[in-house]
UniProtKB/TrEMBL annotation:
Annotated protein name in UniProt: Heme NO-binding domain-containing protein
Boundaries of every Heme NO-binding domain copy: 2-160
Organism: Tenacibaculum aiptasiae
Domain of life: Bacteria
Molecular function in Gene Ontology: heme binding
PANTHER family: GUANYLATE CYCLASE SOLUBLE SUBUNIT BETA-2, SOLUBLE GUANYLATE CYCLASE GCY-32-RELATED
Matches recorded under InterPro entries: H-NOX_domain_sf (IPR038158), Heme_NO-bd (IPR011644), NO_sig/Golgi_transp_ligand-bd (IPR024096)
Length: 179
């Protein structure tokens, strides 16, 4: 997993819960990196799982809800870092339907080691989209947060229903309807 995902996560934890919480979740985890991340480095996904799990235990907030809020925050990081990629689009449905064959393809050119999910377009109309998410990392709620902000970016809103098609969260169906 790319370092930017860790550095932005810890920044958000600091702003929401304070520096003490950052220190606490780092010391409660067994991290090969020691908890020192650089945005351009690459680290094991298991480190993120431990940090998230410990934050969840300390705050009583589920990891899904933590990932949802983190996904919403991460969209602003993408907006700042990759405005050109987002500005290729004028419509949120078109953008979301193009993650797999355009957006994440470009991401892989920048970060060859990126660990990205698979998004399959199952159905698409002008105002609706059914996307199948597949990833061993089960970060579907991070995706949900990014989707919410994608609609906001285009001054729009949507109702998004998430159906777990595999119990472990490695496969999820997103049913997206523009309001
Ligand atoms: C992961 C870039 C848009 C869904 C990532 C990662 C990067 C990235 C750098 C981390 C990869 C790693 O740590 O190895 C981008 C850029 C985007 C974009 C530059 C647009 C400009 C989106 C959108 C979604 C999305 C709109 C909406 C669903 C995800 C998910 C992951 C991810 C769910 C977590 C990894 C996983 O589930 O396996 N993306 N992304 N991305 N991205 Fe994107």
């Amino acid at each position: 997993m790319k370092g930017i995902v860790f550095t932005e996560f810890l920044d958000l934890v600091e702003s929401k819960f304070g520096l003490e919480m950052v220190d606490k979740i780092i010391s409660q985890s067994e991290l090969e990196s020691g908890g020192a991340y650089t945005s351009i480095g690459t680290y094991r996904f298991s480190e993120m799982l431990q940090l998230l799990g410990n934050l969840s235990n300390n705050t009583g907030i589920s990891t899904d809800n933590l990932l949802l809020v983190y996904g919403e925050h991460f969209f602003s990081v993408l907006e700042e870092s990759y405005p050109g990629l987002l500005n290729t689009y004028t419509d949120p449905i078109e953008l979301l339907a193009s993650i797999e064959n355009h957006i994440h393809v470009e991401v892989r050119k920048i970060y060859p080691k990126a660990e990205l999910p698979t998004f399959i377009v199952e159905e698409k109309t002008k105002s609706s989209l059914i996307l199948i998410y597949k990833s061993s990392r089960a970060m579907h709620h991070f995706g949900l947060g990014l989707m919410n902000k994608t609609f906001e970016y285009f001054n729009s809103t949507a109702t998004i229903v998430l159906e777990r098609t595999k119990k472990d969260g490695s496969e999820v169906k997103f049913i997206i309807n523009k309001n």
